[in-house]
Specification:
This protein is an alpha/beta fold. Helices cover 37% and strands 14% of the residues. The chain is built from 14 helices and eleven strands. The strands form three sheets. Strands 5, 6, 7, 8, 9, 10 and 11 form a seven-stranded mixed sheet that branches. Strands 1-2 form a two-stranded parallel ribbon. It is extended, with a radius of gyration of 35 Å.
Length: 487
């Protein structure tokens, strides 16, 4: 055990001691491994593990651990009226009358008050520089300071004032200032005017290359602080551990199946040839990488993905003739001096024009792309990738809700007329197949470029003010950091 530290050594020693106790049992009959482990676990739980540590000038102690100790400086936290004196904690299996009859310590509130007074008296008598603090808000409830502590501070102040008055004619008893060391630092008058500064600018971006797609643009549009915290400080929300596939894994599986199918069946004619056997085959190939899943779960997931793909193909065969020209294609988009690395799910050609399709496993609409200012920059960013792009679309492939939502020029329309499952808007936000647009596709793309360039410049400059849009805080994990609820 030469490579372990002191605490680990002491823990190992405790285990060896219990092993010796197990070996010395009078009953010499053999016991199972499970019984031996139960014996060790039970005996180790009976004796709290408190390893010896080297002496330190700073100790972090519980309230009871201060008993009998002396300090040069003492800071006591949690001195609110609800905590000090605390509420008596009587054992629920012992009647109060029995506890009081046999004198169990701290069995009623009077004894709890006496204990708090003794503890406070000890702290005051040990000659330490004392500080008391409490939280003003606890579990969303306002807190008041402990009356015991406030009375002690007032008594100390009165004693100091009396000593000052009685020593006016004696040089040996010079006037002394009130002992403010008993007060919380925030209660001591400092004679300084505090200046409040609202700073919403972080460090400017040094590297102009941005990875991760358009996510940072969306965060910047909806809450600059969230964009800075997640992309610059790395405070992304961690994924929780799971036993089975979560929503992200299931969405990725569906995405991969569609990718594989489109690599094989890459135009509007061959898409009609995709059969159930081919879909099921691709599902099993994709799910094969998730090892350890029960066979029943795999079969259910194959059926779920197959049903969704069939619903999606029912929309595909209604489209105008097309050819898939790009799958999982990498692009770079330059905006405001920054270069964004994007990966496009799918690019189709329609009459020498290009349309971009992004698969989604939840419901997505173009409302954010058409809002002013833009709140969802993903489709607008895709529209800027090439002068040949004439339409940008979300393919929402969700249980019981498979649809296509997009914005396009008439030359980039997916269908010749209004069809169920297709919601395609013109640059004005009206139905492309039934209304005229007052602005052209090129004018809309130019407007998007101005807005996204401004967002990119804000990212580059480090703009990080806490200014969330209406729904930006709904699922945000950073509210305790930005403290938006305290404003």
């Amino acid at each position: 055990m030469s490579n372990i530290n002191s605490i680990q050594y002491q823990a190992a020693h405790s285990i060896f001691t219990q092993l010796d106790n197990l070996a010395n049992l009078q009953n010499q009959s053999k016991i199972s491994l499970r019984q031996a482990l139960d014996f060790l676990e039970f005996n180790l739980e009976q004796k709290p593990f408190a390893p010896q540590r080297q002496a330190s000038p700073i100790q972090v102690l519980g309230l009871l651990e201060t008993t009998g100790l002396r300090f040069s400086h003492l800071w006591v936290c949690g001195m609110s009226a609800s905590n000090f004196p605390s509420t008596s904690q009587l054992n629920p299996f012992i009647p109060r009358s029995v506890a009081e009859e046999f004198g169990l310590p701290r069995c009623n509130q009077d004894q709890e008050l006496e204990f708090a007074q003794r503890t406070l008296g000890h702290w005051r008598s040990c000659g330490a520089e004392l500080h008391f603090s409490y939280t003003q808000i606890d579990n969303d409830s306002p807190q008041l300071p402990s009356k015991l502590v406030l009375d002690a501070i007032n008594n100390a102040t009165s004693e100091t004032e009396e000593a000052e008055n009685s020593s006016t004619n004696s040089k040996s008893n010079e006037q002394q200032a009130a002992d403010y060391s008993l007060r919380h630092p925030l209660m001591v008058r400092q004679g300084t005017d505090l200046e409040f500064v609202e700073d919403g600018i972080g460090t400017a971006l040094a590297d102009p290359h941005i990875k991760g797609g358009t996510g940072i643009l969306k965060n910047q549009a909806n809450c600059p602080f969230k964009a800075y915290a997640t992309s610059r400080l790395g405070l992304k929300q961690p994924r929780a551990a799971k036993d089975f596939l979560d929503a992200i894994d299931r969405g990725n599986s569906l995405h991969k199946v569609l990718e594989n199918l489109m690599r094989i069946y890459s135009d509007s004619d061959t898409v009609k040839q995709i059969g159930a056997a081919e879909i099921e085959k691709q599902c099993r190939l994709v799910l094969k990488k998730h090892r350890g899943l029960p066979s029943t779960f795999i079969e259910n997931e194959v059926q779920r993905i197959t049903d969704l793909v069939n619903q999606w193909l029912a929309l595909e065969i209604q489209r105008r003739p097309f050819k898939v020209s790009g799958i999982e294609q990498n692009f770079e988009l330059d905006l405001g001096g920054l270069t964004f690395a994007l990966k496009i799910d799918r690019v189709d050609e329609i009459d020498q024009q290009e349309v971009i399709i992004d698969y989604k496993s939840n419901k997505n609409t173009v409302k954010g792309a058409l809002s002013e200012p833009v709140s969802d920059p993903q489709l607008p960013a895709y529209a800027l990738l090439s002068g040949k792009v004439a339409g940008v679309y979300f393919a929402s492939i969700k249980d019981q809700d498979v649809s296509i939502d997009g914005i396009a020029d008439p030359s980039g329309n997916l269908v010749a007329s209004s069809n169920k499952g297709f919601s395609i808007k013109n640059p004005d936000g009206k139905n492309l197949n039934s209304a005229e647009s007052h602005i052209s596709w090129n004018e809309k793309v130019a407007k998007w470029k101005l807005e996204l360039t401004e967002l990119a410049q804000d990212i580059a400059s480090g703009k990080a003010d806490v200014a969330p849009s209406k729904d930006a805080c709904k699922y945000c994990h950073l509210t305790s950091l930005c403290r938006i609820n305290a404003q």
